[in-house]
Amino acid sequence: MTQALAPTSRIGILGGGQLGRMLALSAARMGLDVVIFDPEPDCPASRVAAETVTAAYDDLDAVAKFAASVDAVTYEFENVPAATAAAAAEHAPLRPGAKALDVAQDRLTEKTFLNAHGATTVAFRPVSTLAELHTAISELGLPAILKTRRFGYDGKGQAVIREMSDAEEALAAMNGQPAILEAFADFTHELSIVAARGVDGEVRAYPLSENRHSDGILRESLAPAKVSDETTKTALGMATRVLDALEYVGVMGMELFALKDGTLLVNEIAPRVHNTGHWTQDACTVCQFEQHIRAVAGWPLGDPVPHASARMVNLIGHDADAWEDWLKTPNAVLHLYGKRETRDGRKMGHVNVLGSL
Ligand code: AMP
Quick one: fold of 10-94? Predict the structure, then answer.
């Protein structure tokens, strides 16, 4: 029997970026104190948290001390080192657990795991050498995408292969790291499902969103996505099987490709709150950040039903300079992350523009 944490309990969060910041804000509203662990003292989350521990993620003594000072530990990024997660889990419940990190950190492990649990993906092959790459291309066909197995995000560490002659350059772009060749998904649109699992195993999911990327970075989400009941059912089924198999506690994002014939393929999972779930902040009574904190605290999950439709617009780099215009836009809710330096490609904030359902 898992005990629900009492209000005023302390939640530790590994990582202090914008996701940690928005988790801390939701936790604070519910009377919970957040302790952020981040190497950067002036990180976005530190300025809204009860406390911040400034240390490197591989400083395991600092991680142990941090975890011993809180009632549960969670994280806002999937590349938490395994040793860090293990050190934290010795002193407090780690939610989601280490298995979710293990699966999400390596694209090969992830796709193998997903397929084993009825969440279909594109065909894929592990690749380390040019000979392996040539064989994989002849098996999967072209175009195909070569990706590093680990540490890729927002389209980084990826190369599209259109002709056999692109193979060598694509492999060189992996910088000697183990890679995976993925068949190209000829999708009509990209969707995602953001779902939560509580300590008691209950699963609750928000409606799907439709997502538009450019240069590998999410630009906009429209929610609820205009998809059939069948599509929603398929996505929910895949998310539920994965959450159960991971004995997951918290919110997970699952990115999907929708093909012309209605097939849904999973691109990847994120063991954390997700950029494509930001629309829930203003269109749902219980947003993804509150939902995650509720799960981590062992509290009942909230109702994921929206009361409005939303267009979430990411403010990337100098997009955020238009913040005053967004303040004057009807039905728009501005979220800025408090980052002091604007850089190209950096997520500075987002806007939720609400409409009727
Ligand atoms: P990822 O870093 O894997 O999330 O990929 C970033 C973006 O690249 C995705 O949102 C897609 O737009 C595109 N992409 C990734 N993998 C594939 C694939 N196998 N087929 C087609 N497009 C892809």
Answer: Rossmann fold (3.40.50)
